[in-house]
User: Which sequence fits this backbone?
């Protein structure tokens, strides 16, 4: 008994007690809903059986129905396109800006802070603003493109099926640039200047220094950013709701918006849960990459 | 997943709210009412007046958001915490009545001296019915008609007192009125991929002999072809596919469209913003003499079947109905009653418009009623969007929609 008490006040028991608090919290807030969601994807859920847990199990029927729907594959393809294009855009522009501010010209840190404004804006507000910018008849973007002679007729960014997904991608890139830039800036500042001086003495040019010093030293930061980017883009919902609502004709619909639409617009909760489960698998993969790439940081 | 979590947290919050507020006064019978009306809209004001009458019934009010009405109501019903009375959007009424969630009011209505089915427009009344029984009372109603800019009609040599009567007239007028140099489109409406798109398209299909369960009739195909012509010939903005009715009519108010299809909810804003002479006309017909039709919107009152006090709840509904004559004057909403004369507002354009809307209401038809309405509606929206973006021909798109709808109807 005494040993047990001792262990709780100072020892293994104490450690376990400390760890169990966040674990319980995590289990309650994330674990349970997650499990509930997975269970629901194997059940027949009706809006009137939402309040109970005892619903008929239907095995893989929800998954079979989902993949027999004609819109499923195009929407999954859109999701992949959206994620890849958004992350690529956010990362490349963010990295470019981070390198630019790294040169430490007067006012660089101040300007860098200002960039965060886009990150703190709520998605719906950003969506509403981009809605005006991308509007077909009176949009600012069309005006700029027309005046600079790049296009002759207006592009209906939100209503033309070949542009609608890209309209949301553009807005999402804008939204994510600053986050990428800040994290990459932090990564850049940890690289020792000595390395560059030594390389310069050895006659390495700018590109050689970038590819042999900057990139390898940033490996863990880049891994973390890309997996975080994957998680954030898969969560991006507000912009779709505000700009295209998945239309026209699902040409800009993605899995996360579709899941919401099925659950809360068409009240097909089981189908919505099924899509969420498929997305969870992808996010899990990203999380593993994220955890693995940040593990190095702890060791220094 | 964020939403799912949020929904759960929301459910918890609602649950705790209800356990807290469950301690009520013992003397009075307590009736709870949920609706989406804000403080300047009917429900909270009528309830305040009712409570002042001291009838031995105390009504408690809770406002819910438009998007949450159905999910909140379902959650409350399935956990046994439903209110006594709720206001529900008319296409969703059948969902609840078909599952026995709403109380059958037929017997109470036959005995009532206040609520008489004969007083209502046929469309709204049909929306509260399920299998020939009444499961609610229409709260208010609205429909769509065609606004047109009389000044533009004059400028293009069209008679401002003769708005287009048929679809062909409409196309001809729209072609004349479209003026890209001045940023003017002939017409504006909404083909958005949500309930609004269905709301706007169904009247066209119905006028040509189609309906939600026969969506691929030649008439309905013709209707969608006209819509496609309008968009393809740039007589309406391509953004019609993604713009709401409210935003579309905004372009009419600012003089960027010569005609607009929308409802009476636009009137107050239009009176304020439109700096031109305008009028309202009935929806154009497929050909002269065809059957008229229109959409029907707005909410219904219903009593949940699990209520402890059905009689008292019905008394509250009777009070609401007895105040229907105040609906337009005080709250700018149209009562769903054909027996009430609406007094003039003193604003000539608005009064003239109101007359047209009241006439159009005679032909308004509910969407459904069917318990799986959202799925039917989605099939129609998909067809509209597939045809207007050119991914499918109107015929193929509506054939596909018909198949999906038939699968839902079983």
Assistant:
């Amino acid at each position: 008994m005494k040993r047990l008490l001792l262990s709780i006040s100072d020892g293994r028991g104490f450690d376990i007690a400390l760890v169990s608090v966040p674990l319980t919290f995590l289990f309650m807030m994330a674990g349970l809903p997650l499990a509930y969601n997975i269970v629901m994807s194997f059940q027949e859920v009706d809006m009137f059986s939402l309040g109970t847990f005892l619903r008929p199990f239907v095995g893989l029927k929800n998954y079979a129905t989902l993949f027999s729907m004609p819109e499923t594959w195009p929407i999954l393809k859109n999701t992949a396109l959206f994620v890849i294009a958004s992350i690529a855009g956010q990362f490349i522009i963010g990295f470019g800006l981070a390198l630019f501010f790294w040169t430490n010209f007067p006012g660089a840190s101040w300007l860098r802070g200002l960039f965060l404004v886009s990150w703190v804006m709520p998605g719906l507000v950003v969506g509403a603003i981009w809605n005006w910018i991308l509007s077909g008849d009176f949009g600012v973007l069309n005006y700029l493109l027309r005046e600079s002679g790049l296009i002759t007729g207006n592009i209906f960014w939100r209503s033309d099926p070949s542009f609608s997904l890209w309209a949301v991608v553009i807005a999402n890139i804008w939204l994510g640039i600053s986050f990428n830039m800040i994290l990459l800036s932090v990564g850049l500042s940890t690289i020792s200047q000595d390395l560059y001086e030594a390389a310069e003495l050895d006659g390495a040019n700018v590109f050689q220094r970038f590819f042999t010093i900057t990139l390898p030293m940033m490996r863990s930061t880049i891994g973390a950013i890309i997996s975080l980017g994957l998680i954030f883009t898969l969560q991006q919902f507000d912009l779709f709701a505000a700009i295209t609502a998945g239309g026209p004709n699902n040409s800009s619909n993605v899995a996360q918006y579709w899941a919401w639409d099925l659950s809360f617009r068409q009240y097909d909760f089981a189908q919505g849960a099924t899509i969420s489960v498929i997305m969870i698998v992808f996010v899990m993969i990203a999380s593993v990459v994220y955890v693995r790439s940040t593990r190095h940081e702890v060791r220094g | 997943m964020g939403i799912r979590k949020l929904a759960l947290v929301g459910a918890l919050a609602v649950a705790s709210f209800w356990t807290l507020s469950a301690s009520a006064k013992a003397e009075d019978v307590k009736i709870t009412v949920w609706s989406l009306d804000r403080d300047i809209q009917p429900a909270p004001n009528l309830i305040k007046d009712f409570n002042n009458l001291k009838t031995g019934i105390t009504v408690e009010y809770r406002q819910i958001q438009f998007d949450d009405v159905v999910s909140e109501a379902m959650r409350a019903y399935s956990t046994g915490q439903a209110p006594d009375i709720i206001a529900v959007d008319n296409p969703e009424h059948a969902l609840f009545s078909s599952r026995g969630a709403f109380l059958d009011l037929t017997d109470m209505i036959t005995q009532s001296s206040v609520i008489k089915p004969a007083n209502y427009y046929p469309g709204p009344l049909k929306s509260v019915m399920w299998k020939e029984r009444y499961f609610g009372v229409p709260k208010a109603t609205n429909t769509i008609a065609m606004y047109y800019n009389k000044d533009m009609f004059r400028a293009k040599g069209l008679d401002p007192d003769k708005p287009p009567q048929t679809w062909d007239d409409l196309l001809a007028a729209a072609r004349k009125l479209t003026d890209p140099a001045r940023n003017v489109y002939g017409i504006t409406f909404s083909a958005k991929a949500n309930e609004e798109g269905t709301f706007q398209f169904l009247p066209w299909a119905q006028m040509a002999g189609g309906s939600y369960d026969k969506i691929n009739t030649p008439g309905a195909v013709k209707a969608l072809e006209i819509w496609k012509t309008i968009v393809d010939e740039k007589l309406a903005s391509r953004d019609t596919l993604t713009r709401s009715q409210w935003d579309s009519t905004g372009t009419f108010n600012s003089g960027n469209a010569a005609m607009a299809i929308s409802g009476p909810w636009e009137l107050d804003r239009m009176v304020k913003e439109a700096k031109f002479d305008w009028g309202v006309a009935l929806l154009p017909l497929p050909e002269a003499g065809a059957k008229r039709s229109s959409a029907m919107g707005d909410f219904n009152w219903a009593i949940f079947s699990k209520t402890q006090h059905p009689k008292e709840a019905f008394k509250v509904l009777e009070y609401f109905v007895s105040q229907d004559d105040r609906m337009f004057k005080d709250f700018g909403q149209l009562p769903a009653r054909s027996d009430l004369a609406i007094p003039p507002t003193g604003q000539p354009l608005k009064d003239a418009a109101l007359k047209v809307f009241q006439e159009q209401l005679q032909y308004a038809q509910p969407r459904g009623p069917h318990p799986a309405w959202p799925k039917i509606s989605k099939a129609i929206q998909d067809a509209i969007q597939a045809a207007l973006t050119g991914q499918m021909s109107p015929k193929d798109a509506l054939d596909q929609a018909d198949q999906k709808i038939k699968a839902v109807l079983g």
Summary: Chain A touches chain B through 41 residues (CB under 8 Å). The two ends of chain A are 41 Å apart (CA to CA). Chain A has a mean pLDDT of 86. Residues 63-299 of chain A form a domain with the MetI-like fold fold (CATH 1.10.3720.10).
